Amino acid sequence: MSDATPSAYGDLLDRVRRISNVSHAEELLSWDQQVMMPDEGTPGRARQLSALSAVEHDLLTDDELGTLLDELDATDLDDEPAAVVREVRREHDRAVRVPTDLVERISAASSEALTAWREAKEADDFDAFAPHLEELIDLKRRYAAHVDPDRDPYEVLFEEYEPCLPLSHAEDVLTDLRDAVVPLVDDVRVSDADLTTDAFAGTFAAERQEALMRDALDLLGYPWERGRLDEAPHPFSTGTTFDARITTRYDETDPIGALLSTIHEFGHASYTLGLPDDAYGTPLGEARDLSIHESQSRLWENHVGRSTAFWELFLPRVGDAFPAVDDVTVREAYEAVNAVDPSNTIRVEADELTYHLHIVLRFEIERDLVRGDLDVAEVPAVWNDKMASYLGVRPETDAEGCLQDVHWSHGAFGYFPTYSLGSVIAAQLFDAVDADVEGVDDLIRAGEFDPLHEWLTDRIHRHGKRFETNDLVREATGEDVSADAFVDYATAKYGELYGL
Predict the structure, then answer these.
(1) Which of 223, 295, 388, 473 is the most buried (most CB within 10 A)?
(2) CA-to-CA separations, 473 to 203, 427, 430, 439, in angstroms, rounded
(3) Domain-wise residue ranges, the chain
(4) Is 349 a catalytic residue?
């Protein structure tokens, strides 16, 4: 290795850390906009985020960064430096093809669209949001054309969120899920099983729900010295290994919705907090993109938070917080949090099975929008038709239909498939945990979550972006990413619940 190479790698890390810090500042401003910013703050915030996105883009496309990457590409590097160079190269090569002014326009348009979406959803007025959606689709098509004019623009945008799995692989997984889930939901629909679905019926004050959520986070092992819990219209988690924040939302008629949402976001934060501190600001200290991120939230929400063992542990705390449900049994609670409801129109309130049909619907619509096969004005009608076809229910309003999700206001076209990819990976990971860690259910029942944290940190978190997605899953489980583990898990679980 030449004398220049260590210097080149050190210079690369310095530049990458600067880029990362700008990106994290953007995320913090975005968190503030969704959680704490005054209603009239949008014009200033749009300009702030636009300026930071331009700075980040300029740093990423700097010629000297390209020169360093060229020098390091020609050098034999150890595994971890090679992974850093690979990841920075991918980002750099995409970014240099996109003009800075387009990046600024997308950032500003997204910030304005977020406020427009929030107001349109509240007013149930899709027409008020439609011009913003049209603008973002146009801008993101231009973005994709700059990255690669000869490829499907949706495929290019999908790589923003999952750069390591081909879109064809994701489509295969979605197809396998759809083909397994649709007949399973049909069987559930005609089952004569009488599950308890009203175990948590009643009115539950938001402030008491918040106290219960904090209790749950304490139990799961959320380190408050590195995090926060706040409220947002659309729950999310963001941050770094030093500061990973959670948001949730409260419905006074549905305390379990807040609980599962909080556990879900805890899974995201747990991944972020499990990244190595000493690699902060480099790809080795960053999450391996959204499919793996979603696998962590889905594992905690579904395989832990919906399990019988968890409800044996947590139900007494729910009873203490809300004496009106003190007589609910563990089995009743388990049935209530796992009941399948095809009539539900809201993705974030969907059960494990119908959830994937919500994802397929969004995937098909956003793919057709980006490809130019669907006009924005057609979205409400197409959304409702697909909902009726896949789930047998038609939304009564656009607020509970095509306006329910925040993602398109961010210009996040290509994001939705990662939710289902995360669910199948979560099932694969939990199978591996079950094989490696003795008595997982007993540990959950006892509130001993350290072994699960340690396994996930060892197999997933500590690697950052050292491995690409499929390689990381194979390292952790011995298998490629596939829907098989989820299909087996869901078939067994819902077969038992519904007597199938």
Answers:
(1) 295
(2) 42, 11, 12, 22
(3) 4-151, 167-498
(4) no
Q: How far apart (Å, rounded) are the C-alpha atoms in residues 274 and 221?
A: 12
Find how far residue 359's CA is from the centre of its chain.
12
Which among 174, 337, 340, 353 has a CA at the least distance from the CA of 263?
337
The closest alpha carbon to 223, from 263, 260, 266, belongs to: 266
Backbone angles phi, psi at 197, to 5 degrees: -115, -10
CA-closest candidate to residue 415, choices 480, 341, 365 = 365
Average pLDDT of span 289-311: 97
Q: Three-state SS for 230?
A: strand
- Give the contacts of 315 (CB within 8 A, at least 6 positions apart): 328, 330, 333
Q: What are phi and psi of 363, to 5 degrees?
A: -60, -45
The two three-digit tokens of residue 229, written as one number: 């819990």
d(CA 316, CA 328): 9
Q: What percent of the chain stands above pLDDT 90?
A: 92
- Among 265, 332, 335, 349, the one annotated catalytic: 265
Question: What are the phi and psi torsion angles at 56 (to 5°)?
Answer: -60, -45
pLDDT of residue 65: 97
Q: What is the DSSP letter of 302?
A: I
**Angle at CA 217, nearest 5°, toward 22 and 209?**
110
**CATH class label, 167-498:** mainly alpha
Q: Residue 1: which pLDDT band, with cuts at 50, 70 and 90?
A: very low
Q: Which of 327, 194, 339 is nearest to 254 (CA)?
A: 339
H/E/C letters for each residue in 98-157? CCHHHHHHHHHHHHHHHHHHHHHHHHCCHHHHHHHHHHHHHHHHHHHHHHCCCCCHHHHH
Distances (CA, A) of 213 to 258, 269, 404: 8, 15, 23
In the three-class reduction of DSSP (H, G, I as helix; E, B as strand; rest coil), residue 458 is classed as: helix
Phi, psi of 175, deg, nearest 5: -65, -45
Give residues with Cβ within 8 angstroms of 232, minimum separation 6. 34, 35, 247, 248, 249
Please write the tens of the pLDDT for every residue from 260-270: 999 999 999 99
Q: What's the confidence (pLDDT) of residue 182?
A: 87
Amino acid at 409: S
pLDDT band at 417 (very low <50, low <70, confident <90, very high): very high
What tens digit of pLDDT does each residue of 209-252 get?
999 999 999 999 999 999 999 999 889 999 999 999 999 999 99
List, edge to edge, every strand of the sheet that includes 243-248. 229-231, 243-248, 237-240
